[in-house]
Design goal:
CATH architecture: Alpha-Beta Barrel
Number of strands: 17
Oligomer: single chain
Helix content: 25-40%
Structural class: alpha/beta
CATH topology: TIM Barrel
Strand order of the largest sheet: 3-4-5-8-9-10-11-12
CATH superfamily: Glycosidases
Order of helices and strands: HEEEHHEHEEEHEHEHEHEHEHHEEEEE
Number of domains: 1
Number of helices: 11
Strand content: 15-25%
Distance between the termini: 43 Å
Largest sheet: 8 strands, parallel, barrel
């Protein structure tokens, strides 16, 4: 029975259908995304707010960002916030923050848009702090019934939380119609006033997926991606990526998610010389890109996970091995999914030329978020794959070449890439 199941899965995959598997059953993903060639740049890191004005920095780099092949820049939360970094939102309509003033923000976004680069806003919808007290919300004004009844404040008059709690601020009750309408109005204002084109949904575990679907459908972003960050059992990545699939299905399939599964498996494999982990039991990539690549936003590090001291950040949670970061980019920039490059890696680590070369290979050969992967080898010290029959990539330090008819086009520490002649 298991052999028949595995054969059926391989046949589905070879036909280009995407699977979301669980322990007891599997189902075909009804929301098959078309491939896109979008590449993101995370336009900040944890302590960017200490560079005033960060919006000036973004504006100054706009030409280089566009020329390097980035299509979208993800900016940090731009509303007034109790915390420097913006993740404790206070007055939503006030766009003066530690990153700079509202006019500087508009100029930065306008500069990027004039060069064909879209900008997405980092939205913190799960929680909020009061203007002077625990929950005296202004700009817009919400009452105590906007706070979940099980919030630790103890005075919330709303319904129980529909997701996971956040103890540092008030959990917002999105079952309230006036709250939803207020959020939708604010998002529309962000697009019309500041020039944002899409959204990155912070801490999406904190609210039921159906509310993100409501906000997405009401505002029609050109790009939207949610942060669903749960613990990864490296020995069972299927359950991790299944949870990502379940969330996206519940949100209607229109919102992408960050591929934390790929990040976790990739950095573990590279750090421990266990490249075999990059191929699952179905012969596909082990991360979300193996099941739902069109909706997987791949990345190496972000503002939360980055290594202390190596990127100006003081937030260290789950860093990629620093000596193999460019190897990581060689993987995500040649594989399906929508790759996202971390600002410090591009501008501060001295590997900019390597990343730009990988971007040129990806765009030049038409690799996109739904590209097909043929994994040729995945062993302890070697990973080899051919993508769309156009490029071949090797990670690791053992010898391998794709054979005749291929030309080496890029190489670095621990990786090589070939293209069809």
């Amino acid at each position: 029975m298991q052999n028949k199941l595995n054969l059926a899965i391989k046949l589905f995959l070879s036909g280009g259908l995407l699977l979301c598997l669980s322990v007891f059953s599997f189902s075909i993903n009804p929301y098959v995304s078309k491939g896109e060639d979008t590449i993101l740049l995370q336009g900040f890191y944890w302590t960017s707010c200490k560079t005033h004005s960060w919006w000036h920095t973004i504006e100054d780099k706009a030409d280089e960002i566009a020329a390097s092949g980035f299509d979208i820049v993800w900016l940090p939360p731009s509303s007034d916030s109790l915390s420097c970094e913006g993740y404790m939102p206070r007055r939503l309509y006030v766009q003066d923050s530690k990153y700079g003033g509202k006019e500087e923000l508009k100029k930065a976004i306008s500069s990027l848009r004039s060069k064909g680069v879209k900008v997405i806003a980092d939205l913190v919808l799960n929680h909020r702090v009061g203007t002077k007290d625990w929950a005296d919300f202004t700009d817009p004004k919400w009452g105590p019934d906007s706070v979940c009844s099980d919030d630790e404040w103890g005075k919330g008059k709303g319904e129980p939380d529909t997701g996971k709690g956040f103890h540092a601020a008030r959990d917002i009750d999105h079952t309230k119609k006036y709250v939803r309408e207020s959020v939708i109005n604010w998002l529309g204002w962000l697009k019309s006033s500041s020039g944002y084109s899409g959204w990155r949904y912070d801490y999406a575990r904190g609210i039921a997926p159906k509310y993100f679907r409501i906000y997405n459908e009401a505002t029609s972003p050109v790009f939207s991606v949610a942060e669903i960050w749960d613990d990864l059992d490296i020995s069972n990545p299927d359950s991790h990526r299944q949870a990502l699939c379940d969330w996206m299905n519940s949100a209607g399939g229109e919102i992408k998610v960050f591929d934390f599964t790929t990040k976790g498996v990739l950095q573990y494999a590279l750090r421990n010389n266990q490249y075999w982990r990059l191929r699952d039991k179905y012969g596909s990539p082990s991360g979300l890109i193996g099941w739902w690549p069109g909706n997987a936003v791949t990345f190496i590090d972000n503002h939360d996970t980055a290594q202390r001291g190596e990127d100006g950040s003081v937030h260290k949670s789950w860093p990629f091995p620093s000596n193999k970061v460019l190897m990581g980019y060689a993987y995500i920039l040649t594989h399906p999914g929508v790759p996202c490059v971390f600002w410090p890696h591009f501008f501060d680590w001295g590997i900019k030329d390597g990343i730009k070369e990988l971007i040129r290979v990806r765009k030049g050969r038409g690799i996109n978020s739904a590209s097909r992967v043929n994994i040729v080898k995945a062993s302890s010290r070697l990973y080899c794959a051919i993508i769309d029959g156009k490029i071949a990539v090797k990670l690791g330090f053992d010898y391998w070449i794709p054979g005749s008819g291929w030309e080496e086009i890029a190489a670095g520490y621990g990786y090589k890439i070939w293209v069809k002649k």
